[in-house]
Amino acid sequence: MSAKDLQKSLAHANIFVDTSTIRKTSNKNGVHGRTPRRKPLLSKKNIAARLKFAKKHLDVPQHYWQNILW
User: Fold this and answer.
1) Greatest CA span in the chain, whole angstroms?
2) Fewer CB atoms < 10 Å away: N or C end of the chain?
3) Cβ proximity of 27 and 17 under 8 Å
């Protein structure tokens, strides 16, 4: 729920609080308003490259992958 939505619902109960006060209080209590970073969309070129990589490494044994840092 956003700070503005919370402010509106509190206004219905005759409690008037500024949105910045709501944000500060929620941040102090560990609730942060963050949005996740957008993941880039895959192009046709990247999809083809991933498929090529997967097909090339299909028969590689498990111990090979344990030595790779992703």
Assistant:
1) 67
2) C
3) no
